[in-house]
Write a structure and sequence with these properties.
The chain is mostly beta strands. It is about 15% helix and about 35% strand. Strands 1-2-4-3 form a four-stranded mixed beta sheet.
Length: about 70
């Protein structure tokens, strides 16, 4: 189930990945073939905390991924 984040804009995608028995939500921006830049939040934040940096970092040539951590 993808979470509805309509206010993120057209360049940020929201998706849920199945990792073993865990459904993990991630936000991502940029080309998948670009170098990966992983943004990890601290407690008690969410991937949404990185929303203002996802697109600018992807415009620098990175595939930017921000997962929701447990």
């Amino acid at each position: 189930m993808d979470l509805p984040w309509p206010h993120l804009g057209p360049h940020i995608e929201s998706m849920t990945l199945r990792v073993r028995d865990l459904d993990m939500h991630v936000l991502h921006a940029g080309e998948r073939s670009s170098p990966l830049l992983l943004l990890l939040h601290g407690f008690p934040e969410l991937s949404y905390s990185w929303r203002h940096l996802l697109v600018p970092l992807s415009e620098l040539g990175f595939f930017v991924v921000a997962p929701d951590q447990r």
